[in-house]
Amino acid sequence: MLNFLMGVMRVLIGFFLACLTAGAVSIFLSITLEDLDKLSVLSFENTSFWVLYNAYVIAVFSSPLAILTLIFCEWRGVNNILYYITIGIAISIFGLLVIMWNEISAELSLSNIYGFFSFFVTGFISGAAYWLFSGQFAHRSRKAMNTDSDALDIPKLRKLLRPASTAHAQLPLKKND
Prior knowledge:
The protein is an all-alpha fold. It has helices at residues 2-30, 33-37, 44-76, 81-100, 110-133, 138-145, 154-161.
């Protein structure tokens, strides 16, 4: 039970840190050259507020998709970084498609290309951040569940399940060769 709770905490902390990373990357990619001239825009309080706000929005949007994929990863013991990067990219591109759903123009423009690039990079880096903080340990929780390798040893199960109160329970079991 303790392994399960530790695994859940590891997944939640990893998801939180991946959302913070995605928020920081999205803020970094939204800074223009004009903003670099104004030092007041890049103040710590202002930037940290927007990183936390973006992380909150990203967490709210991506949590249903991320929960499904992270349950699968923990269940199957997936610890490959490419899987987490692919899932991060897929979730962020899905977010971009939801944002672009109500756009009037469907033509390819420079802002659409930059939007795709920024969402792609954000998904890539946040997927790698989740793997770094939590995903690489998924195989350890899978191994912890399978520590008893002889769980299906039939003679051992028979010996454990026979009633101790009967007289014949004290007799040794016959081996079937």
